[in-house]
Design goal:
By secondary structure, this protein is of the alpha+beta class. The chain has eleven helices and eight strands. The strands form two sheets. Strands 2, 4, 5, 6, 7 and 8 form a six-stranded antiparallel β-sheet that branches. Strands 1-3 form a two-stranded parallel sheet.
Length: about 300
């Protein structure tokens, strides 16, 4: 394999997610039927530098996100975040809406409310939520309002769309079973977890220790660890490690980089240190993981 044939996943922006180049850079909205006409290249594993909220009302298929396969069924909503690897398969008569938006667009309006003032509310969610009939009607109405506002291009339409988008994300947060909020826990603790996860996303290649994040957040490492265990049922170190291992798996499977190159990319001093770190999480070496995964895919 020559240098120019190197295996690597593609990263798309809102402008180039479809083959027909768009003019939008921070927000776009498509009907799924329109989107599906130009989706062949998206059946290959890729990642985004934006968020995607995918709302289905009919049809079925399969959606693979970071090594996990999910069924596409009516009244299911997916949330794809920055950097996640995903692809589509076996789409059959799928209809609905796809909303694409950047971090900057979501943060267009500052409300002062910790739950919605920044994109940290987008960090702590499961891959999809399923809507009951009443919820489906509510979501469908709100998405159609966003669509109408988007097409109107009226004064302050971006601000209006941003507010309605925040409402959708709050609804998604509420439905996300993976991070059910215990009513006995303070919203402050959940805000801190969102902040911690956002900082992990930013610094995981450089910072492997909780104390560095705690310093940035102006709290003690012990308190950070305590709230991680209380809210996430994992230690702060485990949450950092989960993110590093996820990126390692992405690079091992979807690129031809050597283990040494991957170790360097993820901020490890040498191949040996990375190998021990990886094996401590998965009980298998990076090379063994790559070989086993690719063998099962054949």
């Amino acid at each position: 394999m020559g240098m120019h044939d190197k295996k690597q996943f593609t990263q798309y922006s809102i402008e180039n997610i479809l083959s027909v180049k768009g003019s939008k850079s921070d927000f776009d909205l498509f009907s799924f039927k329109y989107f599906a006409k130009d989706i062949e290249h998206l059946k290959h594993t890729h990642r985004h530098n934006f968020y995607a909220l995918i709302f289905t009302n009919k049809g079925n298929g399969r959606h693979t996100i970071d090594f996990a396969e999910y069924e596409i069924i009516p009244q299911r909503v997916f949330l794809i975040t920055y950097g996640q690897l995903h692809h589509w398969d076996y789409l059959r008569s799928v209809s609905g809406f796809i909303i694409l938006f950047t971090e900057a667009f979501y943060n267009l309006i500052y409300t002062g409310n910790d739950k919605i003032k920044s994109d940290k509310s987008l960090v702590n969610n499961q891959a999809f939520v399923d809507l009951d009939d009443n919820e489906f009607k509510e979501w469908n109405n709100l998405i159609h309002l966003i669509d109408e506002e988007y097409l109107s291009n009226a004064t302050n339409c971006k601000e209006v769309i941003c507010l309605m988008l925040k409402a959708l994300i709050l609804k998604y947060n509420r439905k996300s079973n993976k991070v059910l909020i215990n009513a006995n826990l303070s919203s402050r603790k959940h805000t801190l977890i969102g902040e911690f996860k956002a900082y992990i996303e930013q610094y995981y290649k450089e910072w492997k220790l909780p104390k560095l994040y705690a310093q940035l957040m102006n709290i003690t490492p012990n308190y950070l660890n305590s709230i991680c265990k209380e809210v996430q049922n994992k230690s702060a170190t485990e949450l950092i490690k989960d993110r590093i291992i996820l990126e390692a798996k992405r690079l091992l499977i979807h690129t031809d980089d050597t283990v040494t190159q991957i170790a360097y990319e993820l901020g490890f001093e040498d191949n040996s240190h990375f190998g021990k770190y990886f094996k401590s999480a998965l009980n298998i070496t990076p090379d063994q993981y790559r070989t086993t995964f690719l063998k099962h895919k054949k």
